[in-house]
Specification:
Its EC number is 6.3.5.13, 3.5.1.2. Keywords: Cell shape, Cell wall biogenesis/degradation, Glutamine amidotransferase, Hydrolase, Ligase, Peptidoglycan synthesis. Forms a heterodimer with MurT. This protein is α/β, with parallel strands linked by helices. It contains eight helices and twelve strands. The protein has a six-stranded mixed sheet, with helices on both faces. Strands 5, 6, 7, 8, 9 and 10 form a six-stranded mixed sheet that branches. Helix 1 packs across helix 6. It is globular, with a radius of gyration of 17 Å. It starts with a strand and ends with a helix.
Length: 246
């Protein structure tokens, strides 16, 4: 019997820019190549919350998009906080990363309260931070992507960044070289790109964590992975590694 993994794509209508939907496609494709059956639930404002959730993926958006989702997002805040505390793996890019923090004060002076999963706050500035972004992470090695945000994010003391910006890009705020954040199994980051097709280690972390939480062990052979699927994954990883070396 196939082993299903339920993935929530969070607000894909309004929070999905610079290729962030590619993260959902990459997870779907990779899970299938490992022998599992991905089931994606697109969750927009007013939708029913799916019965079972193994992983949540959220993208970035314009300030206007963030304002559109904020009321519904707040109705889901307790649920999202408890799923995060329970260890559900989540990836939140840019605009949703900001809203997983404490608040986002936009450049026009409005304040959007976040849900406080991540101890961080964000303040918009006139000059946008745009361009390629590379960082080094203790857990995932070199990570590559692209950033475009007005918000400067500051982590509270003791909050673990995802990585350190060494060469290209601004990261959280352009001042302390931190980029992103990690809390429980939640990853917040400014990396668009899409992130996951180019950074397989992060995709595998999300997949492994989701599968282990639901089925106890991550065992592609037992899940029915074929040799051809294993070879296809290997080829995908080689291409991603080449992209990261450039
Ligand atoms: N609107 C937010 C900002 O400008 C997030 C942008 C994004 O998601 N790329 O900071």
């Amino acid at each position: 019997m196939s082993q299903v993994i339920d993935i929530v794509s969070l607000y894909p209508k309004d929070m999905n820019i610079y290729g962030d939907s590619g993260n959902v496609l990459a997870i779907q494709r990779r899970l299938a190549l490992y022998g599992y059956e991905p089931r994606v639930h697109a969750y927009n404002q007013g939708c029913d919350w799916p019965e079972h959730v193994d992983m949540i993926l959220g993208g970035g958006g314009q300030d206007t998009g963030q304002k559109k989702i904020i009321d519904d997002f707040f109705q889901r805040a307790d649920l999202l906080r408890s799923l995060a505390a329970d260890g559900v793996p989540m990836l939140m890019i840019c605009g949703l990363y900001q809203l997983f923090g404490e608040y986002f004060e936009t450049v026009d002076g409005s304040r959007l309260d976040g849900i406080g999963v991540i101890g961080a706050y964000t303040v918009g500035q006139e000059t946008r931070m745009i361009g390629n972004l590379t960082e080094t992470s203790a857990d995932f090695g070199k990570i590559i992507g692209y950033e475009n945000h007005s918000g400067q994010t500051f982590l509270r003391d003791g909050v673990q960044p995802l990585g350190t910006v060494e060469q290209d890009g601004t990261g959280n705020n352009g001042e302390d070289h931190t980029e992103g954040a990690r809390v429980h199994n939640v990853i917040g980051t400014y990396m668009h790109g899409s992130l996951l097709p180019k950074n397989s280690a992060i995709a595998d972390f999300l997949i492994r964590t989701a599968v282990e939480r639901r089925y106890g062990t991550f065992d592609p052979a037992a899940a029915g992975q074929t040799d051809a699927q294993r070879a296809a994954l290997h080829r995908i990883d080689e291409i991603a590694d080449r992209a990261r070396r450039v």
